[in-house]
Structures are given as C-alpha cells and as structure tokens.
Amino acid sequence: MNLYDCKILLIDDNKELTSMICGILKKNGFDTVYTAGDCSSGMEVFLREQPQLVILDIMLPDGDGFTLFRRLREQSQAPILFLSAKDEDNDRLFGLGLGADDYITKPFLPQELILRIQAILKRVYFSYFQPPSEEGTLILGNRRVLFENAQVISSGGTISLTAKELLLLKKLNRDRGKIVTFDAICQAVWEDSYYGYENTLMVHIRHLREKIEEDPSHPVWIQTVRGLGYRLKKEDETQA
C-alpha cells in the first residue's frame, strides 16, 4: 500500500472550493478523490467507497459536520480532518474533542493542507506496515496484531481480540509454519480441561479469521490441515 493510493472523501457544499481542493490533491499525487455536497450523499459515498481519509466541512445544507462525524465514526475509524470557515476556538476544540484527527480553517495554504493530510495518513496507517521492532507484534499482510494489547490494527481501524482468540493466535504463532494439532491448540487454550472443545475451537477459529483475514471465507493466514489441525502461514511464503 502506497501513501498516494489512499482514497480520500471530501464533503463540502462549496463547489468552487471542492474543485480547488481536488485539484490540489491530484497535483500532489492523490488520484482517488471522491466528493459529496451534503451529509446524506457524504454518508452514501463513505459507505460505498470506504475511504482512508475524510475531509469534512462543518456547515452543510442538510446538517452539520459534527453530527455527521459521529455517524461516520459508528461505521469506521478512518481519520477525519475538519475543514471549516469557523475559526472560533470553541469549534476547533469541540471538533478535536470529538476525536477528529485534525482541524484546518479556510482560507488555507495548499501546501499546509497537503502536509496535514500526509501527516495523518503516515501516523494512522503507515507505521503499521513497517516491520515490527517491538516484541509481541505479529504482521499478517496489511494487519498488525499487538499481543500485549490484544488488538488487530489495519487500515479499517482497530479490533479487539477475546482472551481465547489471543491464546489461540499466540499458540499458532509460536509454531508458525508448522501444523499445530487440534489437541495441542485446545490444551494451550483450555489447559487441563480441553477435551470436548473441538467444535468450540472451530467457532473461535472462524471468529479469529474474521478479524485477521482479508477474506475470511478464503483464509490465507490460518490454514486448515484436514484431519490434523491448523497452521499459521509464514509472511515470506509464496501463495499458491
């Protein structure tokens, strides 16, 4: 994933400003930019295109950006940059207090907008795709598992692992690349009372795949070895 491959959604009803910002973004390498002029169409485009960044105006024809921000946050943790003509400290603090990633007021310098966007994208996404330097981190494609925090981080946001899912993944990771039998996994997760947990293990595997796989129906990382157990694919293995 490249910084400039990120999809950006601009929600603003000022057509002249929208055209100008799109030109600035594309001139600086951001080729995939979607636009919307109100809250309703903004939510529609957001759900359809799943952008990596939203630039959101506060004053919109059918509502306000603060309310739309909350609705967007219910769907995704994609970063949001408020863009507004309002320069009052209260509005800026309120927007940042909601959890916005940044706030910039009109008028603005084109390069300032680009620098803020680049900083947000690098901070939110691209530190996650670097090889881990700390112990207890597992990289699975574009997902990063933090064992210490029991979290899976990706471009779509952060997902928490349950205690059993964490134990299961730790066991597979300790023997990464090798077949781990059903009994060995159950014993690691349920310890002395592991007998009879085979069906429950299948449920946990399914839920774990939903959190770490791009397509849980066609898993790449947690591979089933029929009749034996499961295997966690190594990062450098060539896919078939």
**Mean pLDDT reading:** 86
Strand arrangement across the biggest beta sheet: 2-1-3-6-7
Estimated radius of gyration: 22 Å
The end-to-end span amounts to 21 Å
Helix content: 40-55%
Number of domains: 2
Uncertain runs are 128-135
CATH topology of the largest domain: Rossmann fold
Organism: Blautia hominis
Protein name: Stage 0 sporulation protein A homolog
Domain Response regulatory: 7-121
Domain OmpR/PhoB-type: 135-234
Lay out the secondary structure.
Elements: E1 8-11, H1 15-27, E2 33-36, H2 39-49, E3 53-57, E4 59-60, E5 63-64, H3 65-75, E6 80-84, H4 89-98, E7 102-105, H5 110-126, E8 137-140, E9 143-146, E10 151-154, E11 157-160, H6 163-174, E12 179-181, H7 182-190, H8 198-212, E13 222-225, E14 229-232
Parallel strand pairs: 1-2, 1-3, 3-6, 6-7
Antiparallel strand pairs: 4-5, 8-9, 9-10, 10-11, 12-14, 13-14
Helix pairs in contact: 2-3, 6-7, 6-8
Describe the structure.
The chain has 240 residues and is α/β, with parallel strands linked by helices. The protein contains eight helices and 14 strands. The model is unreliable at 128-135 (pLDDT under 50). It folds into two domains: 3-126, Response regulator (Rossmann fold), CATH 3.40.50.2300; 137-232, Winged helix-like DNA-binding domain superfamily/Winged helix DNA-binding domain (Arc Repressor Mutant, subunit A). The chain is 41% helix and 22% strand. The modification 4-aspartylphosphate is found at residue 57. This is Stage 0 sporulation protein A homolog.
